[in-house]
C-alpha cells in the first residue's frame, strides 16, 4: 500500500549522540528529517529541496547534500545559535520546473 501525504514539519538531528550542546572546534552531522502532519517520518527522495540556515558566526558548513537534508558542520564559536530550515520545493524530473511549498 502506498500513502500520499503532505509535509507537516521538519526535525533536526545532531550527530553524534543527538545532543544540542556542541563543542567548539568539533565537526557534527546535522540531518533534517521531514514528517507529515500526523508525525509520520517521510523518507525524502533526491528531488526534494530543503534549505537550511546555519549562522556563519557559529558554524562553518563543510558539506551539504544536494537535497539539503544532510549537512556536516564545524562549530566555531561559543554562544547560542538558531539554525533554521524549510522544505522549499520538489524538482519535477520531467520538466525543469519546481513545485514550491
UniProtKB/TrEMBL annotation:
GO cellular component terms, A-Z: nuclear pore
InterPro entries listed in its UniProt record: Ig_NUP210_4th, NUP210-like
Domain NUP210 fourth Ig-like: 18-93
PANTHER family: NUCLEAR PORE MEMBRANE GLYCOPROTEIN 210 (PTHR23019:SF0), NUCLEAR PORE MEMBRANE GLYCOPROTEIN GP210-RELATED (PTHR23019)
Protein name: Nuclear pore membrane glycoprotein 210-like
Source organism (scientific name): Elysia marginata
Amino acid at each position: 500500500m502506498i500513502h500520499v501525504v503532505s509535509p507537516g514539519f521538519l526535525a533536526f538531528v545532531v550527530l553524534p549522540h543527538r545532543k544540542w550542546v556542541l563543542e567548539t572546534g568539533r565537526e557534527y552531522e546535522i540531518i533534517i528529517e521531514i514528517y507529515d502532519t500526523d508525525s509520520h517520518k517521510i523518507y525524502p527522495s533526491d528531488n526534494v529541496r530543503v534549505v537550511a540556515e546555519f549562522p556563519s558566526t557559529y558554524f562553518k558548513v563543510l558539506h551539504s547534500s544536494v537535497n539539503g537534508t544532510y549537512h556536516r558542520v564545524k562549530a566555531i564559536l561559543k554562544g547560542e545559535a538558531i539554525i533554521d530550515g524549510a522544505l522549499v520545493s520538489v524538482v519535477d524530473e520531467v520538466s525543469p520546473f519546481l513545485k514550491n511549498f
